[in-house]
Amino acid sequence: MAIDTHAPRLDETGRHRRLRLRRRGSARWSGRPGVRARWAKNAGWYIFLTALSLLVLYPIWMTIVRAISTPLPYIDEGQPLWWVRPQWDIFWRAFTLGDMGRAFFISAIMTTVIVVAQVLTSVLAAYAFAFLEFPLKRLMFVVVIATLMLPIEVTLIANVKTIREVAWLGVDSIQSLSAPFLATAFGIFLIRQGFMGVPKDLRDAATLDGFGHMGFLWRVAVPVARPIIASFIVVSFLSAWNQYTWPRAVTETSSWNTVQIALREVSTTRVDQLNIGFAAAIVAALPILAILIIFQRHLIRGLTAGAVKG
Amino acid sequence: MSTEVQAEAGEHAAPAPRRHRTSRRTREALVGYLFLVPSLVIFGAFFFYPFGRLIWLGLHQQNRTGTATRWVGIEQYGEVLGGEEFSQGLWHSVQYLIYTVPLGLVLGLLLAVAAHRRLKGIKIFQTIFASTVASSVAVASVIFFVLINPQVGKFGRVSWLDLENPDSALFAVSLSSVWQNLGLTFIIVLAGLQAIPDEIIEASILDGFGPVRRFFRVTVPLIAPTLLFLVVVLSIFALQAFAQIDILTQGGPAGSTETLVFKIFNLQQPAKQPIGSILAVGLFGVTMIVSLGQFMILERRVHYGN
């Protein structure tokens, strides 16, 4: 705990506030309550914030209601805000019925492969850029930056051709789902930033203690940069789990669908079975929702990297 | 402190002979490239090689099985980039950008300003506002399927959300993106607001700035770099929109939601690949122009502080 400032504070509306105690790290995110029991004065804000919350949550709520309700009676009742003839086992059924369980399995493996590979390749490359001198270093850095301008949507056609031509890749495989994402410029930049925070003293001490590059990397640099690497892992997981365009392009049989691609089936399902698709969408978002809640701090640091100065 | 002294002492104690130092430098370069190789292999195989291949494909024609190619030259680029397929796809993508970026930014800013205050339980509201970050494009599309699908959606028959009307379909689809990106926009703007030093806000109050004037004259200029970043990111998202269209409209009605990426995706048969490749090169160019243009126009008006 550290005292944030010694001056009387003013909030957005200009009223004086007492000193605020700020916990390091999480304090940026959580506006801590200043003066207790200003409920009456703040009622207006609470009403406004609640209204905004309802607006943001409304689409999710309607999907949950829709998933739980029996489809045809729900439509007959005029699509109310509450469920009609609820089927509480729908979320479990969405998971076990048909290809959804398998899709989760494939998504999980694909995501794991991508995240692990991205961390390894990014840590190594970031180490080279942060600590080593080698010829054409600047050019190599420009090469890494240039990849940011070549998203998968641009290179799609040629990459799918490669997948079809190379025997050990091939459509409908974990290799093809993950191959273009095994390295990422974002990870290299982010982790390089983390490595640059390693004090020079620590490097010299490590060299003196006889650490080689591998020893210094895994025993000193990675532990020091751990918070940033954690942020990267969270964002990497998020984007791997959620990706759509590429898996859609390299999947031909539905048994190789990832979760996101399996969700597409709502557009072709019969009306009386739509609740399963809606439940699947909710279940598909759960792993990410869990991460949002558990690793909130890391997620926010990862997402805001580059966006906010200082 | 002591380690520094030790390190210096160490260097003095054992001055390395020159030959040994050069070999160490070579070794360092070797290790550097060894560490870069895994990333460079992926970047080469799945970023640069395919980009070169797109350009090459655009210069050729292919038969239906892709077994024979014939050189047709650079004119094909002129034909395709000047043709209707590209201009139509580009127009839909640009429309999508116009529908999603300003609206998404304003709503995200509204949420962030509303939630940037010290209230009991504000963290709950902040978590709710950030929550749409958990939904993927596909999940957001299914959620909006619930709302605006013409057959079963609650608002499927509202005229300005009609997915079966070419005039409203793209806008209706775009709302799913606006909603989905709210969480990300909120998180980033809020972080920007929280980075503003309190003294600046206090000083502006002492200068007699009211809340509205303070917002437009102090807060917005100070978070301008953050907003610029978001404009670029959201624009790129918009230009890459695919899943929403694939799930909600499949390009219809009457091709009115066929964005550039949707068209590229559907030009993958060998005979059509050259056209698709040129569209992809066009998408690359447009993305570059949009992000560079935004930087150049907005950069001059952005206050980076420091």
What does this structure look like?
The complex is a heterodimer of chains A (310) and B (306). Chain A has helices at 39-68, 71-76, 90-96, 100-131, 137-146, 152-165, 174-178, 185-196, 200-208, 213-224, 226-242, 245-249, 259-262, 274-294, 296-304, and strands at 2-3, 9-10, 16-17, 21-22. Chain A is mainly α and 310 residues long. Chain A folds into two domains: 2-29 and 36-88, no CATH class; 94-304, MetI-like fold (Orthogonal Bundle). In chain A, strand 2 (9-10) and strand 3 (16-17) form a beta hairpin. Chain B has two domains: 15-58, no CATH class; 77-299, Orthogonal Bundle (MetI-like fold), CATH 1.10.3720. In chain B, helix 3 (75-81) crosses helix 13. At the A-B interface, strand 2, helix 1, helix 4, helix 5 and helix 6 of A face helix 1, helix 2, helix 4, helix 5 and helix 6 of B.
Q: How many separate domains make up the residues of chain A?
A: 2
- Helicity of chain A, in percent? 55-70%
CATH architecture descriptor of the largest domain in chain A: Orthogonal Bundle
How large is the radius of gyration of chain B? 26 Å
- What global shape of chain B is seen? globular
Task: Name the helicity range of chain B.
Answer: over 70%
Give the gist of this structure.
The complex is a heterodimer of chains A (310) and B (306). Chain A is mainly α.
List the helices and strands and how they pair.
The complex is a heterodimer of chains A (310) and B (306).
Chain A: E1 2-3, E2 9-10, E3 16-17, E4 21-22, H1 39-68, H2 71-76, H3 90-96, H4 100-131, H5 137-146, H6 152-165, H7 174-178, H8 185-196, H9 200-208, H10 213-224, H11 226-242, H12 245-249, H13 259-262, H14 274-294, H15 296-304
Antiparallel strand pairs in A: 1-4, 2-3
Helix pairs in contact in A: 1-14, 3-14, 4-8, 4-11, 8-11, 11-15
Chain B: H1 2-13, H2 18-58, E1 60-62, E2 69-71, H3 75-81, H4 84-115, H5 122-130, H6 137-148, H7 169-194, H8 198-206, H9 211-222, H10 224-239, H11 243-248, H12 260-265, H13 273-299
Antiparallel strand pairs in B: 1-2
Helix pairs in contact in B: 2-13, 3-13, 4-7, 4-10, 6-7, 7-10, 10-13
